[in-house]
Structure formats: C-alpha cells, structure tokens
Design goal:
This protein has 394 residues and is α/β, with parallel strands linked by helices. It contains 13 helices and 14 strands.
Length: 394
Amino acid sequence: MAAKPAKPRDQPIALARPVPLPFLLAERICRDFVETLPTPGIERHLPPQRALAQHYGVSRRTVATAFMRLENDGIIAKRARALAEVADAPVPAEAVRTGGPTAVGFIARSVDGVYSNRLLSVCQHALARHGIPMTYVSTRGLPGAEEVAVTDLLRTGVSAFIVVPCPGCGTTPGFYTSLFRGGTTVVFLDRYVDGETVPWVASDNFTGGYTLARHLLQRGLTRFWYVLPGEYPVTSVRDRVAGVRAALGSAGLPVDALELHRLVDEGTKGTSASLRPLVGRLRRGLQGSGPTIAVMCAHDYIARECVQQCAEAGIRMPEQVVVTGFDGLPFATCNAPPFTTVTQYVDRLAREAVALLLRCMGQANGASNVLVPVELVPAIGEAVVPEAPAAIRG
C-alpha cells in the first residue's frame, strides 16, 4: 500500500510566485517524502498523484509535471501500472562481494549553504539505504585540513570517501591518487582536481557557462564581468568561465570583453563586505553612456547580494546592469528583481556520487567520471537559448 501524506502537512502548498510551480513542488515532494521513506524492502512508493494534488492544493497536472522533473533527475522511477518509487543506485557485484565500505567519510569546506547542505543530506540518505553510515568533516578551507581529516577518519575505520575538494586546503599533489590506488575508494563530488586520477561527479559547468553567455548575447549585451568566489580557482567555476569565453569568442567578441573579478574573504555566501568594492568599481565603470554590463556571478548567493547592493547604490537593473547567478536556487526567480540562473541538479549529483562510490569498490581502474547536465532558468519574460553544440566543447 502506498504511503499516505502525514496529517500535519495536509494544507495547501505555499509557493512564492513567479517561481514555476512544478519546480518548487518537485523540491517539496522530495523533501517531504523521498528523503523520509524507509529503507528498501519495507515501503518504497510515493503517494498517488491524485492524493498529492489534494495534499498540496494544486492540480494533478502540476503534480505530473513535478514527477517528470524528479524522474528526469533520477530521483524517482515510474513503473507501468504502478506508483512512482524512489530510484536507488544499484549496488554492483564487486561491492556485494567485498561487503562494501564499512563507513564513508564526507569531507567538504562547509555545508552552511542550501546547495552544499543538500549534497550532504542526499549522500547520507542514499548510503543509509545500503546500510552504510557516513561521517561528515568540515575543513573550513584551512591549509592541510583535508589530509588531516582523511588520516583521522581512516584511523576510525572509515574505508571510503566522498570529497568536495577545496583549493584552499592545499592538499599535497597526488595525495588522493595514492589513496585510490592503494585501495581506499575516493570520489570527488561537485568538482575535480587537476592532476588527481580519482573518479568524479560534477555538473556540466562548461555548457552552463556557454549557454548562459549565449543567452546574454542574444539580449544584445557585449560587456561581461565574471565575479569569482574567494576559493577560485575551483575547477567547477573555471569550467564555467571557459564556457563563457567560448561563447563570446564564437560571437566574435575580443578577449577583453570578459573581465574577471575575484572576491576576497567571501566565505561561502558572498557577504556585503566582500562585494562592496566590486559594486564601487561597477558604478565607476558605468559613468557616461557606456553599454550595459552583464555581471555573471559564480553562484546564486553572490548574485542575490550583488542585486541588493546594486539597488542600494542606485544602479538601474536591467538598464545598466544585468546580474546572473548559478546553481538554480529557488530564490533566484522570486528575487526582487529576479535574475537568470543555471540549475544544477543537486540530488542527482549526490546520488550519482554514491552510485560511483559503490561501483568503484574492488575496481580501481574501472570507474568512469559522471557529467550531470544543467538547465538554464531565465528570469521571467526571457526566452531560452539552445545548449552549446558538442563541437564547441572540445
């Protein structure tokens, strides 16, 4: 029998417009039901679409569209003549024979933001379905902290790692490669590390940067700023910048059409203090009747703060400045004013990382990297442009 919605949640869903309703409904269903379903072998089905429509106070068509998003993201699987069920990563034979990891360490700079916290939560839940505990360690970006965390966890019996690598930790070159070749399973999540032959799962950041730049070019913009996070050069952002450069180059713009601006002491959320000098430079750059500047921010937290500070500084948007973000966090499209962003499928990234970790058990050279697609989410009233052609990516 399908699980019934819990009584405390039986009230219409309150979603802030103009966020697309199915988009937020998919997130709500995932949070309310997918991550709270019991372990395999007990009850895996979601409630029927009709019951969910009544539960959230929306139409059945809206629920069906939300299910399509969850299915495309690999979170649920729809069976013929059956209810939708959670789609787990298959456990490979190698992992079964070796008994799988006794425990998994999750190492990241922090999980203070919505995006990173979701990565942690979904990884932990997916591993729990296979009876594998997970331990989280925050490095706070301190030099040498990743190596210390790995060494300490190995002493406690942790035998595999999911790592969101931080350039600020200054890990010894080849550290993770040596671990991996020595039999310790390591998977990089969200970004990779140059020179390390360790399997990774990441979004298609190049295509994200390319598609976003194409979108802005179609709006007639010719002057671009890219706001880099304090931890740059992180490979995920570097690939987005490469995609932007490729798009500008294909449009015949010179190299100096893109200016890079790195934040200092930005932490994880683009604080006011770190953005204030940037907005000051932006105001000076807008003196006279120059072209509109596209300010492309490395993630949505920076973009939201940038929009707020530009408004406080009297900079007109979008007449003088067009701000964009990256990550696809829900507040992007309901911000005032809303800004264009690129969605990263966070749940799919995390689930693919767990699946890759399990596939790596017992086969150090047999695992392939996983590139997860992204999706442009234009601000209200803006049209979508095609993805980057495959030829341009090389």
